[in-house]
Design goal:
The protein is mainly α. It has one domain. It is built from 14 helices and no strands. The chain starts with a helix and ends with a helix.
Length: about 375
């Protein structure tokens, strides 16, 4: 296989790795809350934060990070798997229950179990084959564009996709977007630093070569976000479009499989790997059965807006593994601001919302500066 083709396929696989239930659904929620400006505020740092990942670190630096922060990266993968499993049960459980004459709980168990079961089977195949399947999934998802209702406004009658139906403002006031913007940028710019699939792709770039696969990823992932906006513009019924459902199912299963595959190799105890892998499926299913609502979706999303980027910021400032003082300071700051962030997204932002980013960042700067002075 030529180097150029390998680069393109790696970029395609990365797009599949990062096309989660966030990229496939969060723009819908954000569009309802914040309108077009919110969607752009979500998309730009998301694309740039991921695409720049490969250019801002060497392969050697990536290997050091996956060694020193293996436990948190493994937890990141487990949380990501649980998120996909929850989303499948929440989105499709009631539909399956109705179509197959099941109870809603049985439909949810079927939907969540199908995604997790498919992910387990896919993760068992050789990693190189799995990455090739992930690469092929990208053009397959692109076919979804062909099955959307591509009729626009003609003669005063509105049918199909109408981008002017996406409001400039959502349920929130424009000032509310400004209040949550630091969290959005902080989360999507830094969360990729804990993604084991990204580290895998960076480490496999040949020595001396440029990580062009991340540039390919930036373009391909942007096209996946455009696809989401297209079926958002097509209205609520678009989520029931068979092509959209197929696209989502493929991406959910492969995203989960790629992270399960990385959990098999991450540098933590084998028992911990097994616990995280199985626990992710169980937690996702339990959340889908017990609290299947938008607030739960947003609380999962909050992990990538607060916990993971806060730890990633700490990791970027450290040489080696975090010490107990770093953990204590970070967790204490997160305990203080988590209720604030939860209220901001499940209800509405307040003037205190930016503190959800300011306090953890200030604490990390403080404890890491003290460590360097003492050294």
């Amino acid at each position: 296989m030529s180097g150029s083709l390998r680069t393109v396929l790696s970029g395609f696989a990365l797009a599949t790795s990062w096309t989660w239930c966030i990229g496939m659904f969060a723009p819908i929620v954000i569009g309802q809350l914040m309108g077009w400006p919110g969607i752009l505020a979500f998309a730009i740092p998301n694309i740039l934060g991921c695409a720049l990942f490969g250019y801002l670190r060497s392969a050697e630096r990536s290997r050091e990070e996956t060694r020193d922060h293996a436990a948190m990266m493994a937890f990141f993968s487990a949380a990501t798997i649980a998120y996909q499993v929850f989303f499948a049960g929440w989105l499709w459980g009631p539909v399956l229950g109705e179509n197959f004459r099941m109870t809603p709980g049985e439909g949810t168990a079927l939907a969540s179990g199908a995604i997790f079961g498919a992910a387990v089977l896919l993760a068992a195949i050789p990693r190189g084959v799995l990455w090739m399947l992930a690469a092929l999934a990208y053009p397959l998802s692109l076919l979804t564009f062909a099955f959307l209702p591509w009729s626009f406004i003609f003669g005063g009658e509105s049918q199909g996709i109408a981008f002017n139906s996406l409001a400039l403002e959502g349920a929130w006031a424009p000032m509310d977007l400004a209040l949550v913007l630091p969290t959005i940028v902080f989360g999507f710019a830094l969360s990729p630093n804990l993604d084991l699939t990204f580290h895998r792709a960076r480490q496999e770039v040949p020595a001396g070569a440029r990580p062009t696969n991340f540039a390919v990823f930036g373009v391909t992932f942007a096209s996946m976000l455009v696809l989401t906006v297209c079926y958002l513009a097509a209205g609520p019924g678009a989520l029931n479009n068979p092509a959209v459902r197929t696209h989502m199912a493929i991406q959910l299963a492969l995203t989960s499989a790629l992270h399960l595959s990385e959990l098999r190799l991450v540098r933590i105890a084998p028992n911990a790997r097994l616990f995280l892998g199985l626990g992710a499926g169980f937690v996702g299913l339990l959340a889908a059965l017990l609290i299947p609502n938008r607030d739960t979706y947003l609380r999962f999303l909050g992990l990538y807006g607060l916990l993971f980027p806060a730890y990633a910021f700490l990791a970027l400032r450290l040489i080696g593994r975090p010490r107990p003082i770093h953990w204590i300071a970070l967790l204490a700051s997160l305990a203080v601001v988590t209720p604030l962030l939860d209220q901001s997204f499940t209800d509405e932002p307040t003037l205190w919302t930016p503190l959800a980013v300011i306090i953890p960042v200030a604490v990390v700067l403080l404890v890491t500066r003290r460590r360097r002075v003492q050294a």
